[in-house]
Specification:
DNA-binding transcription factor activity; Rossmann fold; six-stranded parallel sheet; transcription regulation; 12 helices; alpha/beta; transcription cis-regulatory region binding; 3 domains
Amino acid sequence: MANISMKMLAKELRLSVSTVSKVFTDSHEISEQTKEKVLALAKKLNYVPNPYASSLRKRQSKTIAVVLPEVADSFFSVAINGIESVAREKGYHVLIYLTHELLEREQAILTDFQSGRVDGVLISVSNETSTDQHITEMMQRGIPVVFFDRVCEETATTRITTNDRDSGYLAAQHLIEQGCKRIAYLTISESLSISRNRLTGCKQALAAHHLPFRDSDLVLCTDNEAENLAIIKALLEKKNGPDGIIASVEKLTAAVYLACKELKIAIPGKVKVISFSNQSTAPILNPSLTTITQPAFEMGKMAATVLFNSLRKTQAQLRSETIVVPSVLVTRESTGK
């Protein structure tokens, strides 16, 4: 029998449609005997309940959105696993949206959500995002938002981050302890809070050891691999070039290694390298890469947990707070003496 509906099941069993519906939500109002009868017939007729039908009646989509700048960065792919581990348990679908580091794209995606396509949003903002107007507009329509990793610090909602300033300090201090005196900081954005905080920590470590941080030590890179290679090669070819490099995002690591290879600059002999990275290949690079490893899975899981706790409440009100999950320094050959 094709196109079996809940109404047909109810008619066959001489029950109300609402009773049959409650069976599929495992309502405590329905007896075990009735549940068994309904489920047995549903199995016999190959009836599959439609989760979207009940969701529409409740004005819920049973779907959350995860808005990311990219997925090439291993941090985000691991964070998605953490998010989905919670979503599956809650019976929700997860839709992934990519902004490709474009504010305009991010704004368009969030505007689309205002129609009720999703029940809530987890977002890590693009490197062009310096205003939160498009985010607050969506929140005002009753769609809760939780930030993770890249956040808007002024937005009145929950933010899941790592200890970026402390991690920047830790990265610079490690290079200094390994003998570095001229440390370059590579970034893809001067406006992102994580970039600013990591840079602040780096500068604080240098100041604590009475070492300067020159304007030229802040190196602004792009999303283009060829451009980044040229930028880093130019940095390394300077007369007073760095003897230590901090890559504040994972995508810059390959350009640093390739630039050193093309210029025949030994790592860690002539320049030591540390990167904020979750890439699983870090231990097998040549030389193996020293990293500040973020707790990506835990951050994704925590962000999802906070969002779902909010969705359980009628008003979906989130506290304006920052929850910090610490990162870890993993030392390997790229910073060896």
